[in-house]
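I am still getting used to backbone structure tokens and would like to learn alongside you. To get us started, please write out a protein record for me. Start from the sequence, derive the backbone structure tokens from it, and show both lines together. Once you have written the record down, we can walk along the chain together:
***
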Amino acid sequence: MVQINVHSILANLPLFNEMCPEEIARLALGVRELHLSRSDKLFHGGEASHGFFIVVYGQVKLAFTSTKGIEKVVKLIGPGQSFGEAVMFLGKPYPLSAHVLADSLVLHISKAVVYEEIARDPIFCRKMLAGLSMRLHGLVHDVESYSLHSSAQRVIGYLLQHETTDTAASKTVHIHLTASKNIIASRLNITPETFSRILRDLCAANLISVDGRNIVILDIEKLRNHE
């Protein structure tokens, strides 16, 4: 079993990266490790929230099912990311379900220990609000992307998220899709058929090559400027 440093994981989380070591140590007392297998459900929509979660490794899908039985993927959560904080503070049931897409280690941070820390020090509350504000900014960006960007622009934006600081040294970028194309298409608010068509169009334009879940951006600058 992988040994982890809970204090370090909490301290590096954007939500807590302004916390002092003493605060982190108290939060760590309310952490529970969850070792999950692919296809496990972390929680169902409608269940009560008793805290929030951090993905140490693996991947979790947040989704809901429409009245027509169609699944809509709202977010894919990877290592170092957290989720469930807002619902914890609202005191309402989860509006979504959380499905595990790969063998994962997830930390559950108890609502009780967070509330105790808020009661102990109001500054802690302000720090958490700053972290949640960053999350809200990301959600606004998502809405803007869906509203103002074409389907092709959304797919290109998703591929460009994998750009790293080493990209400048090379035109090519190698990407491995960590989720199925159907899941990624749902996340981008497009149909799987549209996602596949856009990938084919980008291949035809010699901007990318595709081999299953492996994608190579052949010229990242041209892809960035593609319309």
About this structure: The chain has a mean pLDDT of 85.
